[in-house]
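#lab-general

N.A. 3:47 PM
ok so I finally got the sequence cleaned up, no stray characters, all 89 residues accounted for. can someone with queue access submit it? mine expired

B.Y. 3:52 PM
send it over

N.A. 3:53 PM
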Amino acid sequence: MTKRRSRTENEIPLYLLPQAVARTVREWGDAVYRISVKRTHWHHYNVTVRTKPLRRELTVRTIAILSPPAAKSGTPEQPAKSRRRRCQV
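B.Y. 4:20 PM
back already:
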């Protein structure tokens, strides 16, 4: 079973709720399991975001790109093919 993680932000004003949820999800970077919003007093809320780790198949991986071997200095390079222009006449 995967271990769930949670993070709580306290006393968030109503107009900042979307930014608080987005910031919390961005910081954790895992799959969101549950978002809970509870009203404390006046127009302030507590936001709790529970996440669980992504499966190994879904994680982002970095891939190295290898460049082709360098051409030998003794062989002349072939010029790139230019577009053929039609006769203007």
